[in-house]
Amino acid sequence: MPVNVLVLGSGGREHALVWKLSQSPLLGDLFCAPGNPGMTGLAKCISLLLDDHAGILSFAQKNDIGLVVVGPELPLVNGLADAFAGSGIAVFGPTENAARLEGSKVFAKDFMRELRVPTAPFITTNNYDEALKFVRSKNCPLVIKVDGLAGGKGAIICPSYQQAKRTLDQIFNQNKYNDAGKRVVIEECLYGQEVSFHAFCDGSSFILMPCSQDHKSISEGGRGLNTGGMGAIAPVPWVDAKLIGKVSEKVVQPIITNMVKLHWPYVGCLYPGLMIDKLAGPQVLEFNCRFGDPETQPLMMLLDSDLLEIMLACAHNELRGMDIDWKPGFSACVVLASKGYPETYETGKVITGLSEVEKVFGDNVEVFHAGTKIEDGILKTEGGRVLGVTGHGLTLEEAINRAYGACELIKFDNKYMRRDIGRESLEN
In this structure, which of 152, 174, 298, 333 has its CB flanked by the most CB atoms within 10 Å? Predict the structure, then answer.
């Protein structure tokens, strides 16, 4: 019997998931809430508030939804998956307790220390004076992280004591982060190459996806302000089987095993962000309880198996032993952004060139919408990150060149992109 699916979210990550789910022979009706213009030919976009758990459950029941896929972290951290308990409707996404891995930096770091998962040395505190005393005793740079969700802006690298003191003052005395900043993690700064691992999880077992690499900084060479992500590649060519084995054994397996012991079985996508150092090996920067954005875009371009079948297996604890196939080669996503992002930027700029991309590149490039709108029948910019232009190729260079070639065909005023996505990996 066909399975009706509801995907929650509106960004490039959700568009990529909808795009892949729409290809499943198991699929019945596909809904997305609230969705975006790029999804309209693939799913029925509906108006649902992501914090209205009762409303989402009611819609799912009325429309015979068989699987709910939760894209963003906030609904998961706030317990959306728990609202479906006993409903008979499967959810791809962890419960509120399991999602504490992302929802609470303090919980995650304490959990890692208990399980001996490799991570940076740290302290946690809810006291300004205690935090300042620790900072004085350490050599900078240090990283100060607020405990709760802060829209990707809650981890501050402090290169000097003065910066660390100013940051702690903003957190504790100026209440810059509200409740998210009631507690902090202060940790030593890690060095190396940052990579993303994603794992499909069914509560008791997991399967790793190809390693990916996000490019967070707004400017080339890792300079400038941090963003939600300006591009990503997958797989990462210098990440070998030995490193993947270490991540599986020392990072993901202990988390999955001990979540079961806590009676919080982890279902959905577990996404540890890691720093890789040749001497220290992989060390966890943070855990995320959902797919990354823009890492999802190249991962979905590479996935050759049925995503709906995989997600249903996760939700029903049937993942163990499943074979997941990936296309040969590489994928690269380049984010087209509004000039001024991640600070002040203009919206409402007319977007052209998408049909040209399809004509020139066909199935080798997909354009995933992140911040767009339809106004008077015309596609326009609506957000800081506008489109995720994602290419596939048998080599990483071919994938990158296809993505950038497509980017040149797409036009809108104040278009901005980094021009070095994946280039460093070509040189390694």
Answer: 333
In a domain, 129, yes or no: yes
Examine the domain organization and report whether 8 and 91 are in the same domain. yes
pLDDT level of residue 151 (50, 70, 90 thresholds): confident
Closest listed residue to residue 48, CA positions, set 10, 16, 2: 10
State how far the Cα of 369 lies from the Cα of 12, in Å rounded to an integer: 5
Can you tell me the mean pLDDT for 43-71? 97
User: Taking the mean position of all CA atoms in its chain, how far away is CA 140?
Assistant: 29
- Domain assignment of residue 60, yes or no: yes
Q: Do 193 and 276 touch, CB atoms closer than 8 A?
A: yes
- Cβ atoms of residues 421 and 334 within 8 Å: yes
Domain assignment present for residue 27? The answer is: yes
Domain count, the chain: 2
88 and 131: one domain? no
pLDDT level of residue 225 (50, 70, 90 thresholds): confident
DSSP 281-320: EEEEEEEESS--TTTHHHHHHHB-S-HHHHHHHHHTT--T
The model's pTM: 0.96
Mean pLDDT in residue range 17-33:
98
**What does 192-234 look like in DSSP terms, one character per residue?**
SEEEE--EEEEES-EEEPPPBEE--EEEGGGEEEE-S-SEEEE
How far apart CA 197 and CA 249 sit, in angstroms, is 13
- Segment 67-75 shows an average pLDDT of 97
Cα separation of 114 and 63, whole Å? 43
